[in-house]
Predict the 3D structure of the following.
Amino acid sequence: MLNTDYKVENLKDLQEYINKLNPVDLAERFVELDDTELVIWIKLLNKGLLADTFAELPKDNKIKMIELLSDERIRDLIIKLDEDELVDTLQELPANMVRKMMTYLVADERRDKINELLGYPEDSVGSIMSVNFLSVMENENPRDALDKIRTSDLDASRLELIWITDSSLVLKGYAYLADIVRKEEGTIQECTYPITVSVYAKDDQELVAKLAYKYDLAEIPVTDSEGRLIGIVPAEWAIDVLHEEHEEDLANMHGIQDSSDEDDIYLNKSSFQIAKDRTMWLVICLVTASITGFIIHRYEAILAAHVILTAYIPMLMDSGGNAGSQSSTTVIRSLYAGEVNYKEILKVMFKELKIGFITGLALLAVNMIRMFVIDAPGLMVNLTVSITLLLTVMLSKVVGGMLPLIADKLKIDPTIMAGPLITTIVDTVALLIYFEVASILLGL
């Protein structure tokens, strides 16, 4: 635990301690500091570490820190921030702060590049890419590349991959620093690996995460329409995208529209805002549930003649919803991994139909035995419930596999289809099947 006694004799120990901390850990400490402590820690941190820590802070704490710093300290901070980190910060700040920083504190030579990055749509590759990378031309030799590396002011992590271009800056491949060192006397072509994939700046950032996962890439190159290298997205940033997309997918699958700041901690979020985020789908489900009520009302004669059928409605609806969710989750995972697409929708539907038949038969057998042993409702009621269970599971599997592919084709997040929507559709269909089977088998 840190000594918070800020006497002169303790400051040196504190400075030595905090300058060894990881920026992520420092950012967590910064959030807990009061204004006086924050100013002291800022003065004790070296400028590079302070910039890395600032980049990790939540929005409100960034604003607080800027308000505490002098213009000179803010200018020093901005110099240490990479373009992508600075853009992320500017996107979070109030408009008056952005105007001041862009007008007076950002160096002239960086302003055009910052404005260009700010112009990319939110959640696009361009909004997260870094323009800090090292490239060499394919007609240069490894010694030339090493000279550029030695004089580069990029972080070591940005020098592990060296990008190879032609004289028009069109991307041709990449080389590992270790290979360039080992083959210093050879040619750059001996060190060059071909480009596996690349992305455009206006592509959705989710594509970067998918490619990094599929091809196990350390960095994903970003090119313009003519193939010229304009930026990179490191794998660790792709992990951040995966985390964001995972949280978004979980919210969609459970019917939550999260409109609050992603940096907000659950306990610090407004209860009203959380309730608002959760209410939309609940209202939709409430309205659509009236359809099931209408169906039950329509077939009330069947229920009146065989009241016992009512007891099995929850089981049938839950089984259908669970079966549909399983299929949608599997298909969504396959979509993200690039294993399936909309063109294969018929194959997916047929496969899910077979899966539904197999799992449905297993459930049918278990259910028939359970009803005979525990409920003993009579053979025809048992058959009615069991056959409905089989048909419901089969149809739910098909619907669960089909809807995500349709959503992807329509440029809608497929995970929206994996939650309340599938459940609502399946509930309605399960009831229709149930009562129609009952009408046939029970002669009503």
Remarks:
- The CA atoms of residues 95 and 101 lie 10 Å apart.
- Residues 345-375 form the longest helix (31 residues).
